[in-house]
Amino acid sequence: MHPAPSVIIFTTLSGLGFGLLAFLCLGYPSVGGIVGFIFFAIGFGLAIGGLLSSTFHLGHPERAIKAFSQWKSSWLSREAWLSLFALALSGIYALGRIFFEIDLAIIGFLSAFFCVATVFATSMIYAQLKTVPRWNSGITPITFLAFSIAGGALLAGQISIALPLLALSGVIQIVSWISADKAFSKSGTNLATATRLTANPNEVRSFESPHTGTNYLLQEFVYKVGRKHSAKLRIIGVILAFGMPIIFLSIPFSHYIALVAIIAHIVGMFIIRWLFFAQAEHVVGLYYGKR
Amino acid sequence: MTLLPEKTEKKLGLVIDLDTCVGCHACVISCKGWNTENYGAPLSDENAFGAEPVGAFLNRIHSYEVTPVDKPAHLVHFPKSCLHCENAPCVTVCPTGASYKRVEDGIVLVNESDCIGCGLCAWACPYGAREMDPVEKVMKKCTLCVDRIYNENLPEEDRVPSCVRTCPAGARHFGDLGDPNSDVSILVEERGGTDLMPEQETLPVNKYLPPRPKNQMDDTDILAPYLEPIANEPHGFFNWLDKTLDGI
Description:
The complex is a heterodimer. In chain A, 66% of the residues lie in helices and 2% in strands. By secondary structure, chain A is mainly α.
């Protein structure tokens, strides 16, 4: 799949932002006034910035409001509603915290629920697609949720929670890669089922493409650049996103070290999310003799 | 609404005969022409005369080489367009309701004024049937020429999809696949029509008729056994030449 920057930025930043908001709304840390304002501003900035970024990959962003209409069937529509609830409720909670130093615990709990639900809906947009076997698995939502919660704990400064969650996220990511690497062949879709010309996929081969040039399908779904470096990028991604923050948080705390840990985590998450798209193979590539 | 209808009154679709298709791409051009001049945003091309032209097409013809171990190899031309699936994954993922499946005839359509161009429906389609128009930025797909098949301003023989009307080989058939007595249903029954990627559970309405087996080439001429066998031994001058050359 084509790794569109807008979608990578969206899933990475909004995942982190909603993770942070969830912790803040549960009172970890329980802060008000100017410190609370800064914490919530970072959370809203990431979540809203990510959501805005996602509109850049739309052909007609001016019609985005229509995306709220099909929540009965569409995970994208559900995500729109859930993010609206999450932002509205955590906004109310944040106002109480920052300006009145009050803890609206029930609203805070609901905000955290909707923040996590939003990340889940985002992950289901990808996990629901049978056409991309690498994503079409229960592990996809688990990775999205784990990264969001671990990243949220890191940004919220909850070191004792962040350390085990970051380690767990790293393990989940590695397990997910091991299973996802086998997903395409396990899916049972190959050129033989795609064409039904023979039962044996080794007996059929794409002889000629419909056109000599490229097309939308190839640009969107057949992305091979960088796959050859995927093994190295995986190692770099895991070290930056999980390894380095764990090391930095384990040494005596300072704000500068925490900042380095957060930057490493975000850069690592961008690499991991880039791989999530760049390595995903859509079954339509089979028709073109490509993966 | 992007919920799929439980049942459609008809299942209009295409039956494509892979035995007959000659790979001329006439249906591609006719489809592009009709759908550029009629319903919806025109199918645009970008950089049409440049080094890397790109454009939206609703119908594309692939070619596959089939090399069975025990049968002669052959080449199959393979037209591919929207299969108007009963369980269309492209419809349910649409967040705006722009994609829908019609209850009356089962045609899957896009309401272009509701389409936000997010591309998720194209991601959900295993067949590559949907393409984003590079200029209009809305999703384009086969409409089964909904603006022809019910169009009473056209002569009756033209009230079929443009690709079907154009095909010079008669490789494309249009009809109601929900009616077991329709011509297309009988054709599918007789020729063993198949679904593409059945494991994706999309329940495509369009069917593909497999190429007829090509493993009987030795038996094609029933008179062959009665023909005088071709002489294996050369005669006359060539016999002398053969022997002389052997002797050198």
